[in-house]
C-alpha cells in the first residue's frame, strides 16, 4: 500500500434490514483517500453518501443497519487497522473517532446537544480524547471557537446551541470536529443549510484548516459546484454504487458516465444562455430496483444489455473509472 494513502474502503456493503425490505444503501463500494487531499462524494438524495461516512465512523444506525461485507482500513497508525472488525463502542474505535477521524454531521442540531453549552460539548470531546483538565479543555474550546471565526468566543463558549444562528452552529460543529486535530475530516453536507455568503466562508475556513493541519477531507454534497471548488478527486454515487471516479477536471470537462453528465447538465449556468436540464425521472426505490443498470430507466444512452445485466466498472485511465456498458472493451475492474 502506497505511503500516501490514509483510508482504504474495499468492497464495502452496508445494508438495512427494513420492514419494507432489504435496502443495500452501500453496495460494493471501493475507494481510497490520500493524505492531505479533498475527495468529493456527490450524488442525489438517498444514494448512500451518509451511510458510507457512518460506516467509516463505525456508527451505522442500529439495529437495522449492518456492515455485511468489505473492509475499511485506516492507515494513520504504524500498522493498518481494519475498522469493521472493531466494536463501535470499543476503546480503539472511540480513539479513532475524535482523535483521528472526525465528522461534521449533516444535521447540526441533531448532533449538538441542546441541554449543554457549546463550550461544555467541545470540552467533553477534548477531555475524552486528550486527557486535558477542565481549565485546559476550556481554553482549548475557546481557541477552537476563535479558529472557526466566531466572534466573542469567550462569550459563545457559555451559550446553548439554540442561542446561535445556523451558520454559527455549523462553525461550532466544525470547531468540535477539529478540536482533536483529526487526520481525516468527513464533512457531510457541511453547508447545505446555509446562505451562499456563509457557505463560502465555511468552505474557505475548511481549506485554511486543512492546510494548517494537513488533514484529508471527504466532502459529501449533492452540489457539484461546491465539489468543483474544493476537491481534487470525485466519486459519483447512485443507488448505493459508485458510477464514476475521476479527477475534478475530468468530471467537469470529460465525464464518461451518463449519470455524471446528467448531474452536470442540471447545474444552472450563471450568465450563460443554457437551460437547466434536470435528469428525467427519479431515483428508484432501493427495495425495488430495476434489473441491469440501475440508471437505465433514466439514461438516454441505454442499450439492450443495460436492461439485462449490471455493468462492471471499467478503467478509462489510471484515475478515471466508469460503471457503464458504453466502455465495454476497456479493462474490467469488477
Ligand atoms: N437509519 C436508517 N434506517 C433505515 N434505512 C436507512 C437509514 N439511513 C439510511 N437508510 C437507507 O439508506 C439509503 C441511503 O441513505 P443515505 O442517508 O446514505 O443517503 P444520502 O446519499 O446521504 O442522501 P441525502 O443526500 O439525502 O443525505 C436511503 O435511501 C435509505 O433507504
Ligand atoms: S450502463 Fe447503459 S443504462 Fe447504465 S449508464 Fe451506461 S449506458 Fe446508461
Ligand atoms: Mg446524507
Explain this structure:
β1 and β2 form a beta hairpin. The longest helix is centred in the middle third of the chain and has 18 residues, at 196-213. It is built from eleven helices and 13 strands. α2 packs across α4 (118-130). With 334 residues, the protein is an alpha/beta fold. Helices cover 31% and strands 24% of the residues. The strands form two sheets. A nine-stranded mixed beta sheet has the order 6-7-8-3-9-10-12-11-13, with helices on both faces. The protein has a four-stranded antiparallel beta sheet with strand order 2-1-4-5, with helices on one face. The protein has a domain at 5-100 and 182-238: P-loop containing nucleotide triphosphate hydrolases (Rossmann fold). It has helices at residues 49-56, 91-99, 108-111, 118-130, 134-147, 153-156, 166-178, 196-213, 224-230, 248-253, 258-265, and strands at residues 5-18, 21-34, 38-42, 65-74, 81-82, 101-104, 184-188, 216-221, 233-238, 241-247, 313-315, 321-323, 331-332. Bound molecules: adenosine-5'-triphosphate, iron/sulfur cluster and magnesium ion.
Can you give the helix content as a percent range? 25-40%
Tally of helical segments: 11
The largest pleated sheet is described as: 9 strands, mixed
Classify the fold: give the CATH topology of the domain at 5-100 and 182-238.
Answer: Rossmann fold
**Unreliable stretches:** none
Bound molecules: adenosine-5'-triphosphate, iron/sulfur cluster, magnesium ion
Shape: globular
Mean pLDDT: 90
The order of strands across the largest sheet is 6-7-8-3-9-10-12-11-13
Say how many strands there are. Answer: 13
CATH class division of the domain at 5-100 and 182-238: Alpha Beta
Gap from first CA to last CA? 20 Å
- Just name the CATH architecture of the domain at 5-100 and 182-238: 3-Layer(aba) Sandwich
Oligomer: single chain
What integer value in Å does the Rg equal? 21 Å
Amino acid at each position: 500500500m502506497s505511503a500516501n494513502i490514509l483510508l482504504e474502503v474495499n468492497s464495502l456493503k452496508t445494508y438495512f434490514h427494513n420492514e419494507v425490505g432489504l435496502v443495500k444503501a452501500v453496495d460494493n463500494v471501493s475507494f481510497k483517500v490520500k493524505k492531505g487531499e479533498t475527495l468529493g462524494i456527490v450524488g442525489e438524495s438517498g444514494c448512500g453518501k451518509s451511510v458510507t461516512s457512518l460506516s467509516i465512523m463505525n456508527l451505522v444506525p442500529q439495529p437495522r443497519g449492518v456492515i455485511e461485507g468489505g473492509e475499511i482500513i485506516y492507515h494513520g497508525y504504524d500498522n493498518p487497522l481494519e475498522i469493521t472488525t472493531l466494536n463501535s463502542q470499543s476503546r480503539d474505535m472511540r480513539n479513532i473517532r475524535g482523535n483521528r477521524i472526525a465528522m461534521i454531521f449533516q444535521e447540526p442540531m441533531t448532533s449538538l446537544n441542546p441541554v449543554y453549552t457549546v463550550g461544555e460539548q467541545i470540552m467533553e470531546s477534548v477531555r475524552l480524547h486528550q486527557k486535558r483538565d477542565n481549565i485546559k479543555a476550556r481554553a482549548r474550546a475557546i481557541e477552537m471557537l476563535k479558529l472557526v471565526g466566531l466572534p466573542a468566543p469567550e462569550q459563545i463558549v457559555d451559550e446553548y446551541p439554540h442561542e446561535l444562528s445556523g451558520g454559527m452552529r455549523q462553525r461550532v460543529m466544525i470547531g468540535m470536529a477539529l478540536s482533536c486535530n483529526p487526520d481525516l475530516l468527513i464533512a457531510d453536507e457541511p453547508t447545505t443549510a446555509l446562505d451562499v455568503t456563509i457557505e463560502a466562508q465555511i468552505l474557505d475556513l475548511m481549506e485554511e484548516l486543512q492546510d494548517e493541519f494537513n488533514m484529508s477531507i471527504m466532502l459529501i454534497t449533492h452540489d457539484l459546484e461546491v465539489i468543483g471548488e474544493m476537491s481534487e478527486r470525485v466519486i459519483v454515487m447512485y443507488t448505493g454504487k459508485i458510477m464514476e471516479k475521476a479527477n475534478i477536471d475530468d468530471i467537469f470537462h470529460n465525464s464518461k458516465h451518463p449519470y455524471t453528465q446528467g448531474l452536470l447538465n442540471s447545474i444552472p449556468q450563471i450568465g450563460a444562455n443554457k437551460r437547466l436540464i434536470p435528469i428525467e425521472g427519479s431515483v428508484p426505490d432501493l427495495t425495488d430496483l430495476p434489473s441491469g443498470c440501475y440508471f437505465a430507466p433514466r439514461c438516454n444512452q441505454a442499450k439492450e444489455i443495460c436492461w439485462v445485466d449490471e455493468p462492471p466498472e471499467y478503467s478509462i485511465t489510471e484515475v478515471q473509472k466508469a460503471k457503464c456498458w458504453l466502455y465495454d472493451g476497456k479493462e474490467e475492474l469488477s
